[in-house]
Specification:
It is built from no helices and eleven strands. By secondary structure, it is an all-beta fold. The strands form two sheets. Strands 2, 4, 5, 6, 9, 10 and 11 form a seven-stranded mixed beta sheet that branches.
Length: 124
């Protein structure tokens, strides 16, 4: 069974940092592109960042609204992908999901395996 489990969310204040983790079981995450999406109440799920497969270019991609604040990385030994989030603001409040598939995409439809999500709340 292919599983992704997110962790690391929580309640923080404006300007704080958080690191989210996406741990995989049942498959090798190194051979998957992994993306982070987020969904705020009343909004559609939106792409935040993506990292290519380790056996590919390994490129990283970011939505404009998180560039220079968030960083995506992977630790293949731990079968885990991380999202380091800095300079958080209340607009970043959402449930954050990780997703895996063969290629990076900003589309929800481009990913077949999803985690259950972790809540990030940023107070002003």
């Amino acid at each position: 069974q292919l599983l992704l489990v997110e962790s690391g969310g929580g309640l923080v204040h404006t300007g704080d940092s958080l690191r989210l983790s996406c741990a995989a079981s049942g498959f090798n995450l190194a051979y998957r592109a992994v993306a982070w999406f987020r969904q705020a109440p009343g909004n559609e799920r939106e792409g935040v960042s993506c990292i290519d497969r380790s056996d590919g270019a390994g490129a990283t991609y970011y939505a404009d609204f998180v560039k220079d604040r968030f960083a995506i990385s992977r630790d293949n030994a731990k079968n885990t992908v991380y999202l380091e989030m800095n300079s958080l603001s209340p607009e970043d409040t959402a449930v954050y999901y990780c997703a895996a598939d063969l290629h990076c995409s900003g589309s929800v439809a481009g990913f077949g395996t999803w985690g259950q999500g972790t809540q990030v709340t940023v107070s002003s």
